[in-house]
Design goal:
470 residues; alpha+beta; Thrombin, subunit H; Pdz3 Domain; 3 domains; seven-stranded antiparallel β-sheet; six-stranded antiparallel β-barrel
C-alpha cells in the first residue's frame, strides 16, 4: 500500500514535467492537413485487385478487403473509401493503386469539404501507387521529403480517411526500414507503428517537419484492425513512379536482362567471397541488351552504378530506377577478384515461363550416367526426353532423370526433368565432361559442387553437397 501511495505521489508530482517533455504535432498538422484528401470511387467489376491476389492467404489480406461489402473476394461494393494527397498545384492527386483499380467516377474530397470529380491518370500495381487528375489548380501540395534520410526511431504522422473518418491524424515512429513483405518485386517499405486502418490506403506519412516521406499502403493484421505494424512506400520511390505516371501514364522500368538469384552463405564460401552479398548471375536473356556485355554466368554482381548490392532482391529495384538505354557501370566478383564492367539497360518486360512438368514415370531412359557424388542420374537429351519433359530443342545440358532420396540434391529441390547445365563452371555437353569432373573432384577431395540448373528456361545455381557413399 505504501509503495502504491509513493508511486501515485511520484506520478502526480512529475506528470507536468513529463507532459512538458512530450512534443506536440499541432503546428505540423495544421500545416500539412490542407494537402490531404479523401478518395471515393464506384467499382465496376467483381474481379479482385492485383494486390489482393498477391496477398491472398497472408496476414495483409484483411487490409484490402475494405473494397468488399462482406469481406469476400467475390462480392463487389459500390463505394470504396481511401485516402490521398495533393502532389502538385496542377491538380494531380496521389493514392494507392488498389483504391482506384477498375473504378470510374472517382471523387476527391478536399480538406475544405469540396468534392471534385476526377479520372485516373495512371496506375502502377507493382508499387501500389496511382495518380488521379482533377480540374483544380493552386492546391496546397505536400512538401516531398527524402525518405533515405529517415531513421529508425524518428517520429512520423499518418493522416487519412480510416473507416470514412476523414482528416484523422495518428502518430508513431519509424519501426524499420527496407521491409520486404513479398507483395511485389520492388518491396522497400518503411515500417511504422502509427495507427493505420482501412481507408488509410493512399494517405501520406509525414515526418516531424511536415515532409511527405511515404504513402501508407498495407498493415500486418490478423484481425483487420491496427496492431501497430504498418507499411508505407518510401517517398523516393513515390516521386520516381508518380512523375512517370504524370508524364506517360505508365512506368517504364529498366532491367538488366539477367536471371539472378540469392547469394547464400554456402555459395559465398564456395566462391571465396569475404561476405554474403550481391546477386548471382544464373543466366542471360538472349533478347536483352545484356548479350553485348562481358557479364558471364556465375558472376556475382556486387556493385551497381557505384552502389553496393546488399542482396539479390535489391538489384531489380536498382535496375528499375536506371534510364532505359543508358550504360551503367557495375562490379562483379569472378574467380576470386573484383572486375569492373558495364551494361546497357533494357526495358522491363513481363517474363512468362511454363512451370508444368509432365509425369516423369513413363519416360524412356535410354543411356544414363549415375553421378554418385551428387546422388543424381543423368541422361543425354533425346527426342523422347524432350517430349516427356517439355524441353526446348535448343536447351543446353544433361537431363536429370532420377534423384537419390534424402540426398542434398533432393533437399536443394533438384528433380527429374531439370537440366544440369554446369558442374563447377564446366559446361555439360556429354557424359565425358561429367566423368572428367568426377575424377578431378575426387583427386581434390571436394565435398560439394557448384551446379547450374535450367528448369524450363529459369536458371539457378546451387551448392550441392556430395551424397554419402552407399
Amino acid at each position: 500500500m505504501k509503495a502504491f501511495v509513493f508511486f501515485l505521489f511520484y506520478f502526480l508530482a512529475y506528470s507536468p514535467l513529463m507532459a512538458q517533455s512530450v512534443i506536440s504535432f499541432a503546428d505540423t498538422v495544421q500545416k500539412v492537413l490542407p494537402s490531404v484528401v479523401s478518395v471515393s470511387a464506384t467499382k465496376m467489376t467483381a474481379e479482385p485487385p492485383e494486390m489482393m491476389l498477391a496477398l491472398r492467404g497472408s496476414p495483409f489480406e484483411q487490409f484490402f478487403k475494405d473494397v468488399y461489402r462482406d469481406g469476400s473476394f467475390d462480392t463487389p461494393k459500390s463505394i470504396l473509401l481511401g485516402s490521398g494527397f495533393v502532389y502538385n498545384q496542377d491538380g494531380f492527386i496521389v493514392t494507392s493503386a488498389h483504391v482506384v483499380e477498375n473504378m470510374n467516377d472517382v471523387m476527391v474530397t478536399l480538406n475544405d469539404g469540396n468534392v471534385v470529380k476526377g479520372h485516373v491518370a495512371g496506375r502502377d500495381p507493382k508499387t501500389d501507387l496511382a495518380v488521379i487528375k482533377i480540374d483544380s489548380h493552386d492546391l496546397p501540395a505536400v512538401k516531398i521529403g527524402n525518405s533515405d534520410l529517415a531513421r529508425i526511431g524518428d517520429p512520423v504522422l499518418a493522416i487519412g480517411n480510416p473507416f470514412g473518418l476523414g482528416n484523422t491524424v495518428t502518430a508513431g515512429i519509424i519501426s524499420a526500414r527496407s521491409r520486404d513483405i513479398q507483395v511485389g518485386p520492388y518491396d522497400d517499405f518503411i515500417q511504422t507503428d502509427a495507427a493505420i486502418n482501412r481507408g488509410n490506403s493512399g494517405g501520406p506519412l509525414f515526418n516531424a517537419d511536415g515532409e511527405m516521406i511515404g504513402v501508407n499502403t498495407a498493415i500486418f493484421s490478423p484481425s483487420g484492425g491496427s496492431v501497430g505494424i504498418a507499411f508505407a512506400v518510401p517517398s523516393k520511390m513515390v516521386k520516381t513512379v508518380v512523375d512517370a505516371l504524370i508524364k506517360d501514364g505508365v512506368v517504364k522500368r529498366g532491367r538488366l536482362g539477367l536471371k539472378v538469384q540469392t547469394v547464400t552463405k554456402e555459395i559465398a564460401e564456395s566462391l571465396k567471397m569475404d561476405k554474403t552479398y550481391g546477386a548471382l548471375v544464373a543466366g542471360i536473356d538472349p533478347s536483352s541488351l545484356a548479350v553485348g556485355s562481358k557479364i558471364k554466368t556465375g558472376d556475382v554482381i556486387i556493385k551497381f552504378n557505384q552502389r553496393e548490392v546488399p542482396s539479390m532482391r535489391a538489384l531489380p529495384r536498382m535496375a528499375a530506377e536506371a534510364t532505359v538505354g543508358s550504360v551503367v557501370p557495375l562490379t562483379v566478383w569472378r574467380d576470386g577478384k573484383e572486375i569492373d564492367l558495364s551494361i546497357r539497360i533494357s526495358e522491363m518486360k513481363e517474363p512468362s515461363f511454363s512451370q508444368t512438368l509432365p509425369d516423369p514415370e513413363h519416360f524412356q531412359q535410354g543411356k544414363t550416367k549415375n553421378l554418385t557424388l551428387l546422388g543424381i542420374t543423368l541422361a543425354q537429351q533425346t527426342p523422347e526426353l524432350r517430349r516427356r519433359f517439355n524441353l526446348a530443342k535448343n536447351a543446353e545440358g544433361l537431363v536429370v532423370v532420377a534423384v537419390q532420396p534424402k540426398s542434398d540434391a533432393s533437399l536443394k529441390g533438384l528433380r527429374p526433368g531439370d537440366l544440369l547445365v554446369e558442374l563447377d563452371k564446366k559446361k555439360l555437353s556429354h557424359f565425358s565432361v561429367a566423368e572428367d569432373w568426377e575424377k578431378e573432384a575426387a583427386e581434390l577431395g571436394q565435398e560439394s559442387a557448384f551446379v547450374l540448373i535450367d528448369r524450363h528456361g529459369e536458371r539457378f545455381f546451387a551448392v550441392v553437397r556430395f551424397a554419402p557413399v552407399p
